[in-house]
Amino acid sequence: MHQPLFIEQAYIDGKFVGSKHTFQVINPATGKSIGQIPDLTVADTKKAIIAADKAWKPWNSLPVGERCTLVRNLYELIRKHKDELARIMTLESGKPLTESLVEVDYGNSFVEWFSEEGKRTYGETIPALKSGIHLSTIKQSVGVVAAITPWNFPLAMITRKLAPALAAGCTFILKPASQTPFTAIALARLVDEAGIPKGVFQVITSKDSQGIGKELSTHPLVRKISFTGSTSVGRSLMEQAAGTIKRVSFELGGNAPFLVFDDADIDKAIAGAIAGKFRNSGQTCVAVNRFYVQEGIYSAFADKLTAAVKKLKVGDGLKKGVQVGPLINPAGLEKVQEHVQDAVDKGAVVKTGGKALKGNFYEPTVLTDVAPNSLLAQEETFGPVCALFSFSTEEEAIRLANDTPFGLAAYFYSENIHRCRRVAEALEAGMVGINTGMVSNASAPFGGIKQSGIGREGSRYGIDEYLEIKYLCYGE
Length: 476
Ligand code: SIN
Hints:
The protein is α/β, with parallel strands linked by helices. It has two domains: 10-252 and 452-475, Aldehyde Dehydrogenase, Chain A, domain 1, CATH 3.40.605.10; 256-442, Aldehyde Dehydrogenase, Chain A, domain 2 (3-Layer(aba) Sandwich). 38% of the residues lie in helices and 22% in strands. The strands form six sheets. Strands 14-15-16-13-12-18-19 form a seven-stranded mixed sheet, sandwiched between helices. Strands 9-8-7-10-11-21 form a six-stranded mixed sheet, sandwiched between helices. The protein is globular. The relative contact order is 0.14. The chain binds succinic acid. Residues 152-153, 156, 228, 251, 284-286, 440, 446 line the site of succinic acid.
């Protein structure tokens, strides 16, 4: 019989567990508590690591077909409970329900993808250069994996790590963001129902992100850390993981440029700008942060973008028709306010928006004439603000776009095929959207270069992050 998915417990060694210490989870749209969740400790984390280590060999020894069938079961269950999951997600993250429904499908597409890709983790035979030896490779699971995930995609950022890890034969300890633990626990219920054995997946809910992160990144039984979040936290996890030479994969901050050349289709660029900027109220690592528009079309683009932004409906994500929800919390709102104020102080013009609304909401905003030394140009704003800069030549646009330590996503619009090839190759980013503002999907390698990360998630490459290559040399 199916049990409810809203569970105020953590999940260790196949059991839903409580604690006498709990914390409240706040709905960012209302400021009210939606429930409380165990505030687990480093000692609980150690128990989860031991359980994951114990579960690893039996899980890894299952024939891959059986493991992949269990992962497929999870896919079917997520599909079946899509509405319930999406509602929990909206309550804890504030994102509009329509977006939560899209995220459940997006997150589940990784489960489906890796339930299939797990069957294709081929080794190879290698021609020997001399007689008397025979060479081949096999791929084996890394072991116990720890994942630390953010609040902006409460399901998808978990599943694109969990699904390949499970299919590869790893066991998995998750520390979800303290803002959005309920989606993670709901997922644990479905993992349980899918028949995935105890100890294979565990969820540590806690406010002590630093303490739990340190334990996960230093414990010798954890063989790999996968993290999505800020570059500064990634840096410190990497330092900690260095002590036991763990494998790491990181999806870190971005500062995505969006270039609009004068040979672009402006209406398509506006549609791409809205999609690339306002998804999750601008709170995505791949969100457009800097719009560079060529001089000749700057005013036309700014006017059309302003008109489109004015139409966006802001509000509680559970209300019909809402397209832009709240920022995650007051700190998120303050950062947006600080960035806009700084830009205005340096001469930016507010075309629309520019003000905080009641609660954690901020008006969808367009700013023109933004100075290059503004915070908006240098840091991820993580909010519903379009900052417009201008450029005159292709070389200048590329130089400005690349003038950042980050390199996650970049986007540009042009109808000239030669320019498209040149600019796509010159942009320093792990992912480039050419005449599109959306690049994410399960079959594509998601990830960054420079200080935006290490490794790729999704695609046929995503499972390699959870596999070691073993080379076998046979003598005669
Ligand atoms: C992120 O913001 O970290 C992920 C966005 C995506 O998967 O599209």
